[in-house]
Amino acid sequence: MFDSMLDEQIRALQADACARMESAKSLEELEAVRVEALGRKGVLAQFSKEMGKLAPEERAGAGKLLNAAKQALEEAFERRKHSFEEAKLAARLDAEWVDLTLPAAGPRPGSLHPITQIQMEIEDLFVSLGFMVLDGPEVETEYHNFDALNIPRDHPARDTQDTFWLTDGNLLRTHTSPVQVRGMERFKPPLRMVAPGRVFRNESIDASHEHTFYQIEGMMIDHDVSVAHLLYFMQTLLHEVFRRDVKVRLRPGFFPFVEPGFELDIQCFICGGSGCAVCKHSGWVEQLGCGLVNPNVLRTSGIDPEEWNGFAFGLGLTRLVMMRYGIEDIRLLQSGDLRFLQQF
Ligand code: FA5
Q: 105 versus 76: which is more confidently predicted?
């Protein structure tokens, strides 16, 4: 009597726990059923204790039944656990699937520095207008940087372009204008040239002044060149760079190598003309110096000023980039900060 009751209870427990294991929705739920049925304090353990109360002849049969139930439940547990693991693996394989036929990512592409980009655009423009692109040394002779440009040793214009002198008497060029001299020496007129490059000055640094910056020089020598020609090329240049209306201001400027000389300012793009640190609260940013080539400069390079004349300009490429992109501090351009550079 007792035997068949126990028998029934064990079978009912097995059926119930198996069914719950099979329908468990998570590993946690499955584990909870296992602990309840098979754990040290679980129902089967409870039955084992009760077996002690059975008559010895009944005990063997009940023992077998309990073992069979335990084994069946352990198998059901393992089966369900395995199915959870398989589902988890399948989900992972699904999520982490990669198409091996796709081309490999390769190295991350870099980009050209914004100064290089603008330099190349201006070079292309001037090449299309019949100019050649020249290069000159960054370590210059005093003669090419100053004397040949009508700036003798005792001339006050040297003070505005203080630079870094080398022990051999050479210097880090303060502007791209020495390339004018090299161009005239080598090619003779008629001559149309631009010369981009890095220049250096012993300068106190602020939002719009660097000790190392970029300029592009331009020169045209021909017959009857006038200020009108100069203005035409400056307007074409600014239109190409900004592709919108730019307010410019031309004012007299002194450079010993041109006569007459001008400075061309553009209305500050950072503040729209109302005043900021970049334009030193004037609303205007100086972009370039220009003028008609001083006859002394032509003569020094062996060109007859009675026959030839020309214009020259020297544009601050670094400041031009600042205006084009609205960069508020010139120091960012040489900082090497990738967060800044990746924007271009
Ligand atoms: C010159 O360097 C002359 N060689 C320009 C020139 C060429 C005049 C041919 C006439 C004929 P200036 O020192 O003004 O001039 O500099 C030219 C431009 O370089 C300035 O208009 C400005 O845009 C830029 N510049 C000058 N100093 C700095 C600086 N410290 N940091 C950044 N840009 C500068």
A: 76
CA distance 322 to 277: 13
pLDDT at 1: 45
CA of 49 to the centre of ligand 1 (A): 100
197 CA distance to ligand 1 middle (Å) = 12
175, 182, 231, 293: residue to mutate for ligand 1 pocket, most atoms within 8 A of CB = 175
Give the Cα separation of 231 and 291 in Å (integer): 10
Query: In this predicted model, what pLDDT tens digit does every residue of 119-178 receive, in sequence order?
Result: 999 999 999 999 999 999 999 999 999 999 999 999 999 988 999 999 999 999 999 999
Q: What mean pLDDT comes out for the span 34-62? A: 83
Read off the tokens for 219.
């020169």
Contact assessment for residue 174 and residue 102, using Cβ atoms and an 8 Å cutoff: no
Q: How far is CA 150 from CA 293, 297, 327, in A?
A: 11, 6, 35
Atom 32 of ligand 1: nearest residue by CA position: 209
Q: Mutate which of 213, 251, 280 to test ligand 1's pocket (most atoms within 8 Å of Cβ)?
A: 213
Residue linked to tokens 């929705």: 25
Q: For the whole model, what pTM was predicted?
A: 0.72
